Amino acid sequence: MKATGKVVLITGAARRVGAAIARQLAAEGCQLALHYKRSAADAEALAQELRARHGTEPLLIAGDLADPETPARLMDTAIGHFGCLHGLVNNASLYSPAPFGAITPGDWAAMEAVHLRAPLFLTQVAAPYLRKTGGAVVNIGDIHAEIPLRGYLPYSVTKAGLLALTRALAKELGPEIRVNSVSPGVVLWAEDKDPPDGDQQGLIERNALKRVGSPEDIAGAIAYLLFDAPYVTGHNLVVDGGRMLY
């Protein structure tokens, strides 16, 4: 398999879509550095699962991506352990409402730090290692980067910035490094609230495939962009079941 033995760092890897990405890449033979912020128990449970299923030994790294020193520390730890890097998945994300008129500087700063600053500086410190291996970066966007979500302005705008960052990095880092993004539609409901833009059935009806996607759909797209798309860069792959058609 093309991915066998390749080293990939995934941010926000302990739960939900991040964990699905880790499972997909472990199944394809990757060696993984898995970042998490506070979900230590989930990260360790995932690592145990990957050991049992695939015989791999993931490296777990805790860190707050809002801390400007975290990107360099993550990269130093991963390279110190594995010695090389073939892929970076900027998956970590924040998702919370901030209605216009009540947005605070803290609301903006939190989203900007995780969705823009961390991917930029993590890619910057990863680039020397990715150049050596002809590696790739995949950023996780959102369909609301292009169709803004009412009441979630900092989220929508910073995700839009991440898509712009993807294109800019593709131009900066080519031809040695490819940079792409994946924008999911509805693949998991929020854990603590109803969908912000309508009821669950309504969202499904505004979808050409009339169903919710799965984290595995996103993980498969990421694996494709990392290892099976040698002539694709600067692209945003929308995985939304046709939601953007409505």
Describe the structure.
The protein has a seven-stranded parallel beta sheet with strand order 3-2-1-4-5-6-7, with helices on both faces. It has a single domain, classed as NAD(P)-binding Rossmann-like Domain (Rossmann fold, 3-Layer(aba) Sandwich). The chain contains seven helices and seven strands; from the N terminus they run E-H-E-H-E-H-E-H-E-H-E-H-H-E. The mean pLDDT is 95. Helix content is 44%, strand content 14%. It has 246 residues and is an alpha/beta fold.
Comma- or semicolon-separated keywords:
alpha/beta, globular, seven-stranded parallel β-sheet, 246 residues, 14% strand, 7 helices, Rossmann fold
The assembly state of the depicted protein chains is single chain
* Shape, per Cα inertia axes: globular
Helix content: 40-55%
CATH architecture group name? 3-Layer(aba) Sandwich
CATH superfamily: NAD(P)-binding Rossmann-like Domain
The run of helices and strands is EHEHEHEHEHEHHE
Q: Enumerate the spans where pLDDT stays under 50 for 5 or more consecutive residues.
A: none
Please identify the structural class as seen in this structure: alpha/beta
Strand order of the largest sheet: 3-2-1-4-5-6-7
Number of beta-strand segments: 7
